[in-house]
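hey can u check if this looks right to u? its 136 residues, i copy pasted from the old doc so theres a chance i mangled smth
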Amino acid sequence: MHSTHGLILPRQSWLAALGALYIIALLISHATLPKQHVWAIAALFSIIMNGVYIHSALKNRRFVTTETTIATLLVVLSGLGVILSPVYVIAAIALHGAWDLAKHFGAGLPFFSWYTWGCATVDFTYAAALTIYLFR
């Protein structure tokens, strides 16, 4: 995929707005649910977002092992977050954001710059909100 060096291009600003609205909707729903549901939703969110990079790697037939290994580790962490401690799912989401930033700088399968920055922003924001939720 082609990578640009700008953060968000004007035509992608609507995607940033949708991402922000999505996180706000998740947080509002979390405030009304029992805690065990919050962690299951967060784990599901983490698991689904890891599927994007595996799918893209398989489709492009490049970096399949790298993308699958990273995604598998993050999916396992997400599962542990539901079973053992929510800290694991928070870590999985934050580490996915770190992987997005690594992709921006050339690791793994290349993605659009606006996508990796946007995804990292969503991941870090969600991980921070879940951390606050955990300790409130």
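The longest helix spans residues 35-60.
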